[in-house]
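## Example pair
The file below holds two records. Each record gives the amino-acid sequence first, followed by its structure token line.
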Amino acid sequence: MTETLETKRAMILRAAAAIGAERWTPAEIDQLRRKLLADHGSEGKTGSDYIAEVLESAGWKVVLTQQEEAEDQFEEEFEDLLHFKTLSDAEVSLMRLDELLRRFQAHGEKAATERVLEVARLGKRRAEMIARNHKVEPHKRAEKEEIANWFRVWLENPGPFFDWLEVRKQAPDYREKFPKLEEEE
């Protein structure tokens, strides 16, 4: 049995090398599965999941979902998006997220659009977690609570967010909580 599996594994790797794909999406894996059937008949009959497993274990790049594909395709876009040491940093992060969201939506990149929203949800959760951490200084917790609220508002309705943010920064409670920021602007 082990010899049969090893032979099938070798058969898959030889066929994969012959196809020569740089990365293996469901389409390429299906092409490989059909090639195995054509070249080896019933001996070449193999499931797509097993093919993907063999390719991955051999170090080949396997991308099985649109989400994974979007992550690969736009990974550099998503690097270092979440910086919110200060309120100003958080605003820049949200500007970058908003820019990516609009661009991906305009080009119909659904998986990449969802990835932007996922990153924003992560940012919100991180800010909430820091805001609840009593080991963090009270003024920093207040900033993180404000940042989590910004992420929440942006996620709920990104369109008017930056208009809302300008109004929010003028609110008396905001100016009272974060007076130091007034001096910086």
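Second record, same layout:
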Amino acid sequence: MGTPFWEMLCIRELSSLVSSCKPFNAMNTRIRIFAVLLLASTSAFAANPRHPERSFWLPDAYFAQVGAAEKATNAYTVGATWNWNWNRRFRFGLVTGYTEATVGRWETEINGGQDSNWFTQVGITPVLRLYPPLGDNRWFAEVGIGANYISPAYQTDGKRFSTEFNFGDHAAFGRILGDHRQASVALRIQHFSNGGIDAPNPGENFAQLRYSHQF
């Protein structure tokens, strides 16, 4: 069987990104990686039904997540994930993926802690996950780039986003839990910014803890 079109596209795009990662290309880099991951997830879903007896729209897992940023901002997030019907085994481990949908609420202190503002975040993110060939095959690492809508535009005492649309990039590591691998816990670092669409674009970084479970 030949290499699927989207995999060849991923290889070509990622190779080109390595040689073109310059500050003024930051927005294009994010858009291109997001587009490649989105294409990968679409192709993986379209290949074959993940579970023929289940509805296409039924998630494979649900999660709850808490996070904190450097500017006195806390984030509370829930969401769902859909596993891709795709995986590849390499010398460095097994690579697979999933797509997640999130809804979150951010609270940040303003006026020196006297008041607070609330923001709503909605996002969709294609994610690549790696299971390295170590131990009991329960540890994993992952990366993803997603599209997010944050309303109203995020603002703290020290920074202000210029757009409600933002990218969300994350890296994480975690462990599968349970006798039937029905749960997982992960530590994540996620960066939100608009990729240079408009200025100012200070970005915000969150440290996050996520718990996921299959029902």
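Notes on the second record: The CA atoms of residues 27 and 196 lie 5 Å apart. The chain has one domain: 5-213.
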